[in-house]
Amino acid sequence: MSKLKAAGARDTSKARRKSKTAPKAAGGRKLSNWAAAQWRAARNRAGYAFKLILTVCGVLLAGTVLILTAFGQIDDVGGMLASRAERELETAGYTLDWLDVAGAERTGVEEVALAVGAAPGRGLSRVDLNAARDSIQSLSWVKSAEVLRLWPDRIAVLIEERQPYAIWQINQTHHVIDPDGYVIDAADPRDFLDLPRVVGEGANREAHAVIALLELHPEIRDRVTNAIRVGERRWNLRLQSGGDVLLPEDDPASALALLAAMHEERGVLDYEAQILDLRNAGEMVMRPWPDRAAERAGRGA
Description:
The protein is of the alpha/beta class. The protein is built from 9 helices and 11 strands. Strands 5-4-6-7-8-9-10-11 form an 8-stranded mixed β-sheet. The chain has a 3-stranded mixed β-sheet with strand order 1-3-2.
């Protein structure tokens, strides 16, 4: 500030000296220059004053925030302001009057409304979109959901539902699962008797892999009643005849391709076999039913 004052003093002294020696004819021009200088000075003073006011207000606001924080009241103030804003919006008519739900075929609209917390006249700004989404996604049939606030009076919900994929049997209990192995608790297995069946611990998580392999070989798939998970490592396929196809842990696809080729060539799936063992790569071992083998031996004798 001292430097600015010194410069101002020098400018003023020069103006005084010029005023003593300047011709009288230039009086009008001097007056104009003096007015312009005064205007610039006033404008600068106003700018400094405005900056000073902003600075003081900022300091006061920061101090207020610090004091409120120190006494643990900043959240109360923020909540009070938010509540006031919500009330003003409701008074202006921004209330929840419409709930649009898309993609819900098996999920009830009433369930969605309850999850959103929809009620006539509720302030639209009071709907917590993230909480509503999480609540909707906790519904059994819902895989994912998106919740949108559409001003002035609407909430839109977009739902992707889980698709029934297979029946999973575990501990004598049956469940409907989706392709990811998620149990759809709200689904009644008796309503989906045509779905493939998988059995055993961990079978739900690996169901998609074995079902996809069987889809490549319809002649095998149509004879399989259950796919049984063994030790959470590999699969046995239970046939309509009661026999089992033992698949290897590694490369079950090649084993099924070999079985399909052997059936096409020799009709092995029509044999009265208790076991068709494909666990060794590139070979198949067939074991007949013991009682049926003895019966055939008796007839031959």
